[in-house]
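can u pls check wat happens w/ pentane-1,5-diamine
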Amino acid sequence: MRVFTIGSAPARGMLAALTALALGTWAHPTVAADAPSELNLFAWSEYIPTSVIEGFEKESGIKVNYEEYASNEEMLAKLVSGASKYDLLQPSEYTVEALIKEDRLQPLDKSKLPNLKNVEAWYTTQAHDSGLKYSVPYMSGTVGIVVNKEKVKEPVTGYDDVFKDAHKGRIVVLDDAVEIVTWAMATQGKGPAQVNSENVAATRPVLERWLPLVKVYDSDSPKTALLNGDVDIGIVWSGEGAILVNEAPEKFQYILPKEGAHMFIDSLAIPKDAPHPEAAHAFIDYLLRPEVSRKISEEFPYTNPNVGARKLLSDKERNNEASYPKGSPRLEIFRDMGPTAVEIDELFTDVKAKSAS
Ligand code: N2P
């Protein structure tokens, strides 16, 4: 778990990164020669199975160095610091858009990605990167509520049902400023397209009410606190919710908030200064193979954008509503938030620190 507090090194790095992103003052390290013997992968934690990495290493002879992050902002901070050179990133849709705007990504060479044909057409037309010039969808998913039905008896339909005094000290949430601030905005009747300084600042009283009730902030494995009984309710990534529902369907339920939920599209993208772009293309195409992508879904049951892989899923996997929502829930894809991202981060960090004391 990564916890950012005011003045901590990660928090400072993150603010610097967001500011640099907003101002367009990115450092551009020099480009090293391509040596396809290794791949520096910088990706979300708990997202790419070890068996998949090993399968690729064995087949290609390319060594994968997998460094993990737990938020888009953490990834941006390290990327902008220039301390390490990465070959492949896994940003969510709104961060893909920010990186494209700042000219930080290289266009994909589609001749090296024959398996791109497996991606469902809908994903190829989304506004953050229409035509998938710079990014390939890896997994998508939602952010929703998990309830332990043995402990929470009253109906839960929206964010305010989670943050109730009765649940004080029994709540887990993602450690993610953008997620939490947009939940608060949703309860004020504002969607993610209305992110601006004024609307973000207006969420402060909501956050001041909510955050003192939270027991655990965890973006890596929020299911753990629910599984071991430390908390009774939470707001988590859908793949984590799907695992809980699979483990104990009689106990856990995944609910999409009535005010609207984030639908993220976590994507693969190659930085402009990647030392090994050949290796990055080879790995992307490997991940796009239906049988490989199916393995990812088995371990991390998010919404798989790969049509070929989805055909290989069991009925049980396909019918898990946390992975594949039924009906027509209100889902929102985020867009680049520009300089307001800095304000979101500052607000959350401030209220969180004050809530802990
Ligand atoms: C995987 C986290 C999913 C990231 N552990 C959501 N954007």
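DSSP finds 15 helices and ten strands in the chain.
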